[in-house]
Amino acid sequence: MASARLGADLSHVFCTPPAANVIKTYSPNLMVHPIMREVSEVPASHQPASEIASPITAMLSNLHAVVIGPGLGRDSLMQATVATVIKSARERNTPLVLDADALWLVQNQLDLIYGYKECVLTPNVVEFQRLAKAAGLGEDELPDTGENGCRKLAKALGGVLVLRKGPVDWISNGENAIMGEGEGGRKRSGGQGDTLTGSIGTLLAYRDLYHQKLWDVEGNMDRAETLLLAAWGGSAITRECSRLAFVKHGRSLQASDLTEEVPVAFETLIGEKEESKL
After folding, report:
1. Residue 145 above 80 pLDDT?
2. Which pTM does this prediction carry?
């Protein structure tokens, strides 16, 4: 929903059939595709991840970015299907944002994303440590999970962009690093990462249009720079959403409360070209 509220023209959701009807109730504007399957939903003798993934990979040429992880789970067939989608997206150079159980997948199959510089990982501190261990970084090589640690992990993954969520968000591709330090709310509700990944997804779509030179803008930033900025923008918007939602709801705040604040946060932090805050 965050991607749609930030301005994505079309937001596609790929899910299992039982989840589809529930997701459709969130908004009539979501394009819901009940394509995914869990092991229990197909015969034991026939679990073709590549066949299940085929309709998704066929759509990649029409998508500016792909967000994977929220609601995914660790079902083996779901994970295998997502692995196929990631491989296909990488072949097409489609930007990826990976969170939650997509991080579980890549920590066990680092080759899926190693060296892919159109990929953003958004781990929390625990997920960060798991990825670091999978990348072969020992405790002596990873002194912290802040700027230095974020740089080291990104470099160990071949230049993949890492956004480590925390009291401040550290973002690095192994060479450069920036910090997201917006105020945020006083409550960290489970699921707020979905606002982050959705926001980054839409900003990556805007980024693609920038590099296609479809907009009349000044400057000539390279793709590494704009990827960093898209991740930072997602961090800033999410933290502002959290702050605004906490003002309204206090300790009763739920992750879904952030969604309504997305357009307000965008206008507050960035704004349209004529009134840009940047």
Report:
1. no
2. 0.95
- Alpha-carbon span 34 to 56, nearest angstrom: 11
Angle 222-5-263 (CA atoms, 0-180°, nearest 5)? 85
Q: What percent of the chain has pLDDT over 70?
A: 96
> Is residue 171 helix, strand or coil?
strand
**Amino acid occupying residue 137:** L
Nearest to 62 by CA among 205, 172, 184: 205
Q: What is the DSSP string of 3-65?
A: HHHHT-S--EEE--HHHHHHHHTT-TTSEEE-----GGGS-TT---HHHHHHHHHHHGGG-S-
Confidence at residue 143, expressed as pLDDT on a 0 to 100 scale: 67
Structure tokens at 243: 């702050």
Residue pair 60/77 in contact by the 8 Å Cβ criterion: no
Contact (CB, 8 A) for 237 and 269: yes
Q: Using CB atoms within 10 Å of the CB of residue 43, give its burial: 0 to 12 exposed, 13 to 18 middle, 19+ buried.
A: exposed
Look-up of token digits 């105020």:
183
How many angstroms separate the Cα of 62 from the Cα of each of 9, 12, 89? 12, 11, 11
> Taking the CB of residue 14, how many other CB atoms lie within 10 A of it?
22
Q: Are 168 and 180 in contact (CB under 8 A)?
A: yes
Ramachandran sector of residue 30 (left: φ over 0; alpha: ψ -120 to 50; beta: rest): beta
pLDDT at 221: 95
Name the β-bridge partners of 32: 13
Extract the tokens encoding 207. 């980024």
